[in-house]
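Weekly structure sync - notes
Attendees: PM, LS, DV (DV joined late)
Agenda: review two folding runs queued last week.

Item 1: First target. Sequence and structure tokens pasted below for the record.
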Amino acid sequence: MISKTLLALAFLATFVAGSALGDEAIEPTYTVKISMDGGLGPFLVDGEGMTLYTFANDVPESGVSACIDDCAERWPPFFAPEIEVPPELNVTDFGGIPREDGTFQTTYKGWPLYRYFEDKAPGDVLGQGLGGVWSVVAP
């Protein structure tokens, strides 16, 4: 009887301790995830919620970024050494390319990914449509 009581108490203590940690303890940390905008619909963001963009002057699957020098200052290349994504995304859609400056850049379905320097808060989409060549990334 004592062993059943101890076993029940141990189970209860484990359950209470796990519950006290809340959902944050079991939520994975993603390097890329999906955000939503009423006008744009779903789009990709980095792990901190900053919007990711593609550049129409890039050629997908070419292994090269067309955004260099001054362009790369306004549109910093996005790079994550390891990609963790929610179930709605497929990790095999992500890859990487070397840049001419020796750094690396993450790609999505062959397109190099960028952030926009004017986006200051998670979910900002100030780069959407700029110059007719910058677009948020639809999943």
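Item 2: Second target, run right after the first with the same settings.
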Amino acid sequence: MDAFYASVEQRDDPALRGQPVVVAWRGSRSVVCAASYEARKFGVRSAMPAVRAERLCPHAVFVPPDFVRYKAASRQVREIFERHTDLIEPLSLDEAYLDVTATKTGLPSATATAQAIRDAIREETRLTASAGVAPNKFVAKIASDWNKPDGLFVVKPHQVEAFLAPLPVGRLPGVGKVMEAKLAELGVQRVTDLRALGALALEQRFGRWGRRLHELAYGIDDHPVEPSRPTLQISSEDTFERDLPLSEVEADLRALAAKTWAGYQRELQRNPGRIARTVVLKLKTADFRILTRSLTPPHPPASEAELADLACGLRARVELPASTLYRLVGVGVSGFVEEDEAIAQSDLFDGGAVDEVLEGR
């Protein structure tokens, strides 16, 4: 979908059409959820601090997010997808992979299917979508951004290598800023440079990931569209108005535990056989250092209060000085297993908790 949240706001409020719309709460700790294309011309992007967005575009119209409406629009779009295929892998409210190798409609090609879907979205939701058509997921993902907004871009099988060759290596999935810098040290800026290094050199330098990089450089990706991706974690987090020490965040942790528990209960209704065994505490310091602490107790948390107690208790496993200030906290549950497996693991670990500690930036 094109600038999805902002587009929903502009659709529902004619006064916002043509205006630089920023979907975000105002405040020094707020971040941009979405920006209309009018706002993007000024450099405003999602995940940007709202105060920076306001500096870049002082006349922007700030609109607080309304996820109830966004989810309703997303369901409409999903229903349109389902007329064409059952092989749908949602990535978020506004993005999904579709396998249209065989369709319910009998349309003659993937391109025709993509166009039909875009036409239906425009007619039925009064929103626009962009589509990428390609032989596999990662090439289709890149292609979907090619003609935004309201665009369609097709990469046929024989065009894949030529399409990828001039692209910056950062466009490949899994190549973030750190890997991009490591590749730059080797003189690799674009996909064609990556190919020139060869599979052996990449594997010697980066191990199995090097082999994967070589495959991606040639557009090789056999990952299927997965219609039912299992939930791996359910979490809630919040950014404070001012930085706080750990000793002052208990009320916030308990409120976040309540949100996470509600989400967990919804997941249990959808998949009653799957249990979350691990409790996760996420922290972001005032200098943007991210830490997580997790605990797998002998028995999975059985109530909101128990989840909150475990999350609050994880603060004791943070080794930073008590004077350290934090800008964000989060509470999550993870380690999903089938219920009978959870019972077996509870018997195995009865008498002692398993503590898992992760730390990073």
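Discussion on item 2: The first strand starts at residue 21 and ends at 23.
Action: LS to circulate a short write-up before next sync.
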